[in-house]
């Protein structure tokens, strides 16, 4: 109190005392605030303020403390039963506005913002409506002070609005100040409710300022602040330009629901035109708030048309859901309350609601949908929806071609929203568009032209289809492992196909969703457009493959949309259309092979007329000049067009597969009859040289199997294998030859595995017939051989999983007996067991003879029934070998006919046939079918040996693999031939390559020589381990393969060499010890000639020799000049019973 009479300064204690007082007041309970206490608290402050004539000159610190204290006091003052004194309320309001309304010039902006923030907080406390315990604030007296153009506080109210609008965009940014300012604007607008003339004067400033703030801040705009700004625009526009209010003022004509109301309005004069202001000659004071007129409405509507749409667009694309919901509220208010006053904003507001009805955030989407359904109860919006739909569809091709992905996405989402909304409201607009009366023939071309698909990713124009097809036949990439294993559900999504004029994937998916929504909204009427597009695709697949591919994509999306409206079984018309689409797509695939010649044709009229001048000329000189013109080079353009057409045909194939799967999802189990033709098309696509088509084929096959009621794609193929084999057989003839036919069989065999081998038994003869007819075509012959190799691989895998027969195991054991060194103790033991077995066998035979003796008449007097005679004949006949299985018959048939191609002119086919024979050997040998295998090998042996002398290294490798397989599985039968025929050729191969001098094996792991050496060592290892050969041949092997033990060679070659020498050590360890030791120089004497100083084989030699002994092997120098052999000692431990 002592300093309250002194004016506050920057150094005075006023601000500190006020801050201390405010902290004390915060501790007081609510019940303590009485009118007396409140007057006591503000008395020192009011005394100080009376000492200052200009409140704006007060220090910032004092004003901040004063505003905070007053805000605290007012918050309790307005809640007491007597309420706040109107005079004090008015004075505080005027003081606050006058204190900060003119600030900001020449002062610190940071301090000024704090003062403004506290001032806005005080104004909010003074003006914000509040109701508590029956106490209403502001009171009616306060309301009257701001009602009417001549109200006492109207200037203060306008100053407050100006202050709040100025603070809405603080510089530097101050989010709290901005939030408080926008909130105060909305509070102040509440005091002007019902005063249209006054609101009309503040509408332009508020809308312009809020729009400028929203658009200027952009992404930096906070979501809650943007929502408040949109709310301020909504409040001022709807309060000023409400249709009902303008109708009462006579600015808008009244509405009449029937003729009686129209007559009454005519009698009252309501039909007269609104009066327009006329100039007056009498001198009257100018009204600051003139009444609203039609001209004002027209002018304001034009200004708002350029201001509000950008605001709605900015809020619609904002990241905050609060801003997007504010856009929903503003758009709904403009349509619901101002659609007559502001008709030009109706399309923009309706577009905003429709776009936000597709929002990803559920609250925003649900809010927009609820408001749209509420608005659609008004019939006048049906026309606006149709106009939006028409303009969006007509403008879509232009937007797509302009490569504006954002606008394309918005247009697609708009059409999707309209389709969804109209379908729920029972509108027939979409059905009319897609139906017979929609003139699809007119707008389809422009739509397909802009929806052209781009080249698939990874697509290369340099792919050689024939070469790639051959690779797929021999590789394993046609059928994914997931499909072979049959695990997991079918994949739901195909690889994304990018549109040529739409870069963003989200935009392309929005267009796909748009087509599905149109199909769902059109219903069965949309089947007409589907039929048109599928016929368009079939008719234009050659001349316009790009538009044909786009048409199939449109068909798929529309068909999916039509089917999505039915939860259960689709209607008959939809199912009929699905069958028609599937048949058309299969027919297009069948015709593709016949139309291959079209790729080389170019029917470009411009090319035909390239040399003809488009002008009129006379005279020889002019004609000569024209002839001298250099014709334009059209080769580059023609090549580009050809590559583009090829890429589009690839896309057409991929989309046809996905559309077939869509048809299967609609038909369900009823799709099974269509598999008669569709399954071949899908399996043929698995052998496409393009990765995209194979990927689509794999997914489509799984989806078709799932939708058709099969447990897996393997079951689907097994159930329809006869149909596929029949189609393949037809396409292996002269009339319908297809390079994909053999690959279809390969895909089937790899997909199903061993169960399918007996079912394709009959096709083997047709394959060999085709080989006889078309062996000159390398790619086709390679694919045919790949079928046979795949069959053999499947059978070999099945054979490897089973144990060899008992007879085969016994034969192998007998053959191995000759490889083991003599063991007298073991041999005499076996002899004793054999002797006992012979005695038991003799006693068993005697007992059987005695039992068979007939007890009764003998000779011609014996009576023997017919059954007994047959049983006797059967017993007398010895048991033969079991009949071969169908798989073994197939293997024997393939092996018997493959030998003729060992002398084919193509080295690739020779190598493949050798590989086929190598794979077929274990199939027959493991099953004990040596009788079927060995005659074929006997006939083909000269050709196999000739291939060891072949000049192509990879053919030699395959021939060595055949010999290795023979040694492994039937070594006991081919031992002499291997020793006499095969090994000399292998030894010659090693010598002619000059491996030691040229160090070829040390040059790389991916050379042909590397693979050849691996094959030769594998063959030699099997010879050493399985074949009973002479010791001289083993000695030659030990010497020939020593360079491969060099530690400087490739690790793979070293490992194979170690395995080979380990097998040789098991056969003759002493000889191997001599060879390795003499090579290193540790064994001298008569073996010194084996010394090779350039070879570093010590480490690998130790590995070989250490495998048979405990610990590491160390070679000691030994002189073997006079060897002495110990006398063998035999001990007979077995006891024999010779009785």
Radius of gyration, in angstroms, nearest whole number: 49 Å
Overall, the morphology is elongated
Total strands: 2
**Poorly predicted ranges:** 104-111, 596-615, 1110-1139
Number of helices: 49
Beta-strand portion reads under 5%
> Which bin fits the share of residues in helices?
55-70%
State the end-to-end CA separation: 144 Å
| Overall mean confidence score, pLDDT | 80
Q: Structural class of the helix and strand makeup?
A: mainly alpha
The strand line-up of the biggest sheet is: 1-2
Q: Main beta sheet, described? A: 2 strands, antiparallel
How are the elements arranged and paired?
Layout: H1 14-26, H2 35-50, H3 60-77, H4 86-100, H5 109-127, E1 130-132, E2 135-137, H6 140-144, H7 154-167, H8 175-190, H9 196-217, H10 223-240, H11 243-248, H12 259-268, H13 294-316, H14 321-338, H15 346-356, H16 362-375, H17 380-401, H18 405-425, H19 429-434, H20 440-450, H21 465-474, H22 481-485, H23 505-522, H24 527-539, H25 545-564, H26 572-592, H27 605-608, H28 620-627, H29 635-667, H30 675-685, H31 691-707, H32 713-719, H33 721-730, H34 741-752, H35 763-774, H36 778-801, H37 806-817, H38 824-852, H39 866-876, H40 886-898, H41 907-926, H42 930-948, H43 953-992, H44 995-998, H45 1008-1026, H46 1031-1040, H47 1051-1067, H48 1069-1080, H49 1098-1106
Antiparallel strand pairs: 1-2
Helix pairs in contact: 1-3, 2-3, 3-5, 4-5, 4-7, 5-8, 7-8, 8-10, 9-10, 9-13, 10-14, 13-14, 13-15, 14-15, 14-16, 15-16, 17-18, 17-20, 18-23, 21-36, 23-25, 24-25, 24-26, 25-29, 26-29, 29-30, 29-31, 30-31, 30-33, 30-34, 33-34, 34-36, 35-36, 36-40, 36-41, 37-43, 40-41, 41-42, 41-43, 42-43, ...
